Amino acid sequence: MNCLKRFTREKKIYCGKNYREVDLFVYNSNQAVRSKQGRSKRVKETAPAQKNLNNKKARRYFEQLVWTNTDKTWLSLTLTYEPAYFPGTLDRADKMVENYLNRLRRLYRKHGKELKYILVTTNTSGKDEAPARIHHHILVSGGVDRNAVEDMWHTKGNKIGTINADRLDMNAVTNLCEYLAKQQKRGAGKKRWTSSKNLKKPSSQSFDGELSLAKLERLANMPEDCRDIQRFFERSNRGFKVVEVKKTYNEVTSTWSFTTKLRRKE
Q: How many domains does the chain have?
């Protein structure tokens, strides 16, 4: 009779200097091979195949990507259209915002800067060819005057619509990512968000067997907001403070798992 050996795995996802996530779960010998050294090499996280913010994995990677690359110098932009310039289709909107980003690239190069961005296009109808209200949310790297960034939203010298450029509030990044995920309603088969190719990817490292199965079970019996749970994750992530803990029970494997978000202490 084949006896499956079980072990705990703690996976740390590093998202820049000030944010990280930690997954704690149980594997068995059929699901994965336990690392003989107890920890794996640090590797880059893989982006989801479909950039669909209605997908849980994509939403999570999206937030990790934002935290990995942004800082308080970044700008948060909201772009809308005047009736005279309403694109009519999402493909046309994609072209118009692409032209805007090209103008931004030239502006940034003029100031000796490299443009980095993360773009989400929202459409309230959810249909590609019958968009009720299209607008764009863009996070762009800093180093250029906000007024100059806003002035680029034009065509042949005419303003395409309204544009607001605000400093990115790092205390509101998680809420902003959740908001953008809810707002995003593009049609089937379309990418839900896009980004420049010069962004850093979050990285991760796994630690096997450092926590006993019995200890994980004891943690699972505590409330998610229990201070003992927070202390456990903070001890292995020194300098960081827990901002959210979620635990999940898997009825198939009869095991508990944790997903934890942490920010660097100020």
A: 2
Confidence category of residue 88, pLDDT binned at 50, 70, 90: confident
Cα 190 to Cα 186: distance, rounded to the nearest angstrom: 7
Tens of pLDDT, residue by residue over 26-45, are 988 777 777 766 788 899 99
20 assigned to some structural domain: yes
pTM value? 0.90
